[in-house]
Specification:
Structural class: mainly alpha
Shape: elongated
Order of helices and strands: EEEHHHHHHHHHHEEHH
Largest sheet: 3 strands, antiparallel
Length: about 325
């Protein structure tokens, strides 16, 4: 099928060539003014220049086919950008989980690193899912304004993705801590990441993110964590109480001033961080599963599971997740 547009200002052709193996669009411009425009770019121009409303729908369909074809070409701009974006999301998650697993009251900077990276990674996975679902439903990429309308509201993004693609799932109801963690990450992405600077400069509207995370840790501690002190640890505590001075604070800024508190909090910290990673792993694993399932409905690159080998992976049992300390390695 060939559609020819002819006006006083320009002439161009869109040729739709169909073979047994593929459908492709060939575009030929006969006016220097429009050289370099892609078919999608010309689609935005031609209605104003031509006014051929009877063929607009046909051309739009042809151009959607052209765009979808680009998503199977490893060298296309669209695929290259999707690969970059997915890689950024994946490495943010890997480094974020690694930092969270190693964080404790003696190394609080790793909390901030983990919250930054995890909120970025989760947001980008959710927005990738929205992009892929838009391709599935409408055969074209969404407008930038749609993605930007969500801002950094991870809770809204999560609820949109799950309500549209998993409307009958009860994931959030399966554990009472999932929603508070998503809300925490959303609050951090939206503003509490600036809490220290805002408070120092007289703008104190929110809560300290470390205090809020400590509330989540307290729940984890009460539900999952138990410790037993060995004779050696008891001897260390006695020696520390007699010979050491402590000037530390936990995540809620409560002072740690005795050897007893130091050892006990240190033992709890390892267990708490293991379970903290587990909860986040389950949330991230869930949304990665939605992304992979959605992308399987169309022919497109990249293959998202290639970027998230530790997720949607039956070998990653709860114990394996809790014990894993370096998420940059398989």
């Amino acid at each position: 099928m060939r559609l020819i547009f002819n006006s006083k200002r320009f002439i161009f052709k869109l040729n739709l060539i169909t073979t047994d193996n593929e459908t492709q669009i060939r575009y030929i411009s006969h006016n220097q003014r429009f050289n370099g425009y892609s078919p999608l770019g010309l689609m935005q121009i031609y209605p104003q220049l031509c006014g051929y409303t009877d063929v607009n729908a046909k051309v739009e369909k042809m151009l959607r086919i052209w765009q979808m074809k680009e998503l199977t070409d490893i060298n296309s701009k669209e695929v290259i950008l999707l690969i970059k974006e997915t890689g950024l999301a994946a490495t943010s998650i890997e480094q974020g989980l690694t930092a969270l697993r190693k964080a404790n009251f003696g190394n609080k900077k790793l909390y901030y690193q983990s919250f930054f990276l995890l909120s970025i990674g989760i947001e980008r996975i959710l927005k990738l899912t929205i992009i892929v679902n838009h391709l599935v439903q409408k055969d074209k990429l969404p407008q930038n304004s749609e993605l930007k309308s969500y801002g950094h509201n991870l809770e809204e993004l999560f609820l949109k993705v799950t309500s549209e693609l998993k409307p009958n799932d009860n994931f959030l109801q399966s554990d009472k801590l999932y929603l508070p963690i998503i809300q925490f990450m959303s609050d951090f992405a939206n503003g509490s990441r600036y809490y220290n600077l805002d408070t120092l400069s007289g703008k104190n509207k929110g809560a300290d993110p470390l205090h809020e995370w400590h509330k989540i840790q307290t729940y984890i501690k009460s539900k999952h964590c138990k410790i037993r002190l060995s004779p050696l640890e008891l001897a260390i505590i006695e020696s520390l109480n007699s010979n050491a001075i402590f000037s530390l604070r936990d995540e809620s800024d409560k002072a740690i001033i005795t050897g007893t508190e130091y050892v006990i909090e240190g033992k709890f910290a390892d267990q708490i961080q293991g379970y903290s990673v587990l909860y986040l792993y389950k949330i991230i694993d869930y949304i990665i599963g939605i992304l992979i399932d959605c992308s399987s409905q169309i022919r497109m690159l990249p293959y998202f599971d290639d970027f998230f080998r530790l997720f949607q992976n039956p070998s990653m049992t709860e114990i394996a997740v809790r014990r894993k300390k370096d998420w940059n390695k398989l």
